[in-house]
Design goal:
The chain has about 60 residues and is mostly helical. It contains one helix and no strands.
């Protein structure tokens, strides 16, 4: 192998490594966003359930 072939191989391997790193980084970012969205939904659902239970409790109390 001459110098140009070695440089070409280094460029190809380097570009492939960079591509894999960027793919990993973007997958990690997407997973983090998904986790936060699920967390927000759970928190919102918990608030709504708490509110509904509170309304039911006060309504039942008023009826008696």
């Amino acid at each position: 192998m001459n110098g140009d072939q070695i440089i070409g191989m280094v460029i190809i391997v380097g570009a492939y490594g960079l591509m894999l790193y960027l793919l990993h980084a973007s997958n990690h970012a997407i997973a983090e966003m998904k986790r936060r969205r699920i967390e927000r939904r759970r928190r919102y659902a918990k608030k709504r359930v708490g509110h509904v239970l509170e309304v039911q409790r006060t309504t039942r109390h008023r009826r008696r």
